[in-house]
C-alpha cells in the first residue's frame, strides 16, 4: 500500500465529486449522494460494506459512455488500490478510461497513475504508451506535466535498452524540474557513457559533483571521464596558457579547467579561473555557474564569499537546494538572521527532503539569537515532523533556561 500512497495523493482531486448542477458532465443526484455515504463508511474502515455498495452500484445498467459509470469504476479502482489489490484496481482504472466519458483532467491523471502501476510491474512499453498519450493530452490542454512522469518515460526506455529515447526524456525531465533528483542525473551519466558521449558524460558527472560534493563515487566518475578524454598535463597546460594570455573565449573551457582543478583538489586555482571568466564576461552569471564558484570558495575555506555567491545563485533559481545550502553556510558563519532567511526561502520554494530539518535549523538559529519562544515553536514543529531525537534535547535546554532564568 505504501508504494501507491504517492499515487493516491496525486489523484486526490480526481476522487472528489462535483455537486450536481446543470453543466455537463456531472454525477446524477442519486449517485452523488450514494458516494457520499460510501465515503463515510470508508472513513470508518467499513471496507466490506464499501466494496459491497460499490459493486451493487456498478451492477446498474449504464449507457456506453456514461459519466456515472466511469466515476464509479474509478472510485472502485482506487478503493482496490488502497486495499493492496493493485492488479484488480488497474483493470477498473482502464475500464474507466475506456468509457471515454471522464473530463479531460481526470483522464490525464488516470493515464499517469496507470503508467506508474504498469511500470512498477515491469510492463515498460505499456507504461510508455500511456505516458506518451498523457504528455500529448497535457500539451494539447495545457495541463501541468509532472517531471517525474517524463522521467518515468526515460527510465522505461532505458529498461527496454532504447538509450537514445531514454536520454531525450530524462534530459527533458531534468530541465523541467525545480529539484535536483540524483537518480535522474545518474541515469543521464550512464546513458552518455553507454553511447560513448564522453564529453557529455563528463559534464553530467560535474553536475553530480556540484550537487552532491561529498559523494566520492561521483568524483571517481568525473576522474574516469577526464582519463578517457585524456585531459591531463598537456590539456591542462594548454588551457592554463590560454587563461593567462586571455586566449580562452569559450565558457566551457573556463568551466572545464575549473572543474579539473576541483577534481585535483586545488580549489584556490578553481576560484581564480572562475573569477577571471566572470570578470571577462565569458562565463554567464547563471545559478549553475555561480553554484560552481560557491563550491570552489567553500573548498578554499572562504565561506563569506561562498555565502555571498550562493545567495546570488539562489535568487536566480527556484531550486530549494541552493537556499537550503546557503542556510547551512550562514550558520557556519554564525550569521543567524541570514541563515533563518535562507531556510525560510528554501521552504517557500518547496523543500521536501529531510522533513523537520529546516524547522530544526531555524530553531537552533533562534536560540543563538536568544529568541527562545520562537525557537521552541520551530523545534516542536521539527519534533512533530520526525526529528524528535535531535530537536528534543534543545527543547529541554530551553526549558532549563526558562526555569533558571529567575
UniProtKB/TrEMBL annotation:
Residues 33-60 form a coiled coil. Residues 1-18 form the signal peptide. InterPro entries: TPR-like_helical_dom_sf, TPR_rpt. This is Tetratricopeptide repeat protein. It holds the Pfam family TPR_16. The keyword Signal applies. SMART domains: TPR. Keywords: Coiled coil, Signal. The keyword Coiled coil applies. Gene3D superfamilies: Tetratricopeptide repeat domain.
Amino acid at each position: 500500500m505504501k508504494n501507491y500512497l504517492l499515487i493516491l495523493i496525486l489523484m486526490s482531486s480526481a476522487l472528489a465529486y462535483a455537486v450536481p448542477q446543470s453543466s455537463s458532465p456531472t454525477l446524477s443526484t442519486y449517485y452523488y449522494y450514494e458516494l457520499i455515504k460510501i465515503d463515510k463508511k470508508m472513513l470508518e474502515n467499513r471496507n466490506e460494506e464499501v466494496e459491497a455498495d460499490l459493486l451493487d452500484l456498478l451492477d446498474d445498467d449504464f449507457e456506453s459512455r456514461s459519466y456515472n459509470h466511469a466515476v464509479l469504476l474509478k472510485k472502485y479502482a482506487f478503493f482496490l488500490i488502497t486495499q493492496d489489490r493493485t492488479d484488480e484496481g488497474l483493470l477498473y482504472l482502464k475500464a474507466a478510461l475506456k468509457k471515454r466519458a471522464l473530463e479531460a483532467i481526470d483522464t490525464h491523471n488516470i493515464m499517469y497513475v496507470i503508467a506508474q502501476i504498469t511500470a512498477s510491474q515491469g510492463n515498460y512499453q505499456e507504461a510508455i504508451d500511456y505516458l506518451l498519450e498523457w504528455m500529448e493530452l497535457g500539451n494539447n490542454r495545457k495541463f501541468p506535466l509532472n517531471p517525474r512522469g517524463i522521467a518515468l518515460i526515460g527510465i522505461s526506455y532505458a529498461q527496454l535498452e532504447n538509450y537514445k529515447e531514454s536520454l531525450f526524456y530524462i534530459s527533458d525531465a531534468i530541465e523541467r524540474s525545480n529539484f535536483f533528483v540524483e537518480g535522474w542525473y545518474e541515469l543521464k551519466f550512464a546513458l552518455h557513457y553507454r553511447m560513448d558521449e564522453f564529453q557529455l558524460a563528463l559534464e553530467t558527472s560535474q553536475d553530480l559533483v556540484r550537487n552532491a560534493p561529498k559523494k566520492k563515487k561521483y568524483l571517481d566518475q568525473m576522474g574516469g571521464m577526464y582519463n578517457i578524454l585524456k585531459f591531463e598535463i598537456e590539456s591542462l597546460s594548454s588551457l592554463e596558457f590560454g587563461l593567462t594570455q586571455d586566449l580562452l573565449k569559450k565558457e566551457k573551457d573556463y568551466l572545464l579547467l575549473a572543474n579539473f582543478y576541483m577534481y585535483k583538489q586545488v580549489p584556490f586555482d578553481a576560484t581564480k579561473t572562475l573569477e577571471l571568466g566572470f570578470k571577462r564576461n565569458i562565463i554567464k552569471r547563471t545559478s549553475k555557474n555561480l553554484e560552481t564558484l560557491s563550491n570552489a570558495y567553500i573548498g578554499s575555506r572562504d565561506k563569506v564569499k561562498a555565502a555571498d555567491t550562493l545567495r546570488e545563485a539562489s535568487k536566480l533559481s527556484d531550486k530549494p537546494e541552493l537556499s537550503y545550502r546557503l542556510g547551512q553556510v550562514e550558520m557556519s558563519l554564525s550569521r543567524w538572521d541570514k541563515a533563518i532567511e535562507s531556510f525560510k526561502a528554501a521552504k517557500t520554494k518547496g523543500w521536501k527532503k529531510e522533513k523537520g530539518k529546516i524547522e530544526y535549523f531555524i530553531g537552533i538559529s533562534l536560540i543563538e539569537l536568544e529568541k527562545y519562544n520562537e525557537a521552541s515553536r520551530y523545534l516542536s514543529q521539527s519534533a512533530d515532523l520526525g526529528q524528535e531525537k535531535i530537536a528534543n534535547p534543545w527543547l529541554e535546554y530551553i526549558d532549563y533556561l526558562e526555569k533558571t532564568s529567575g
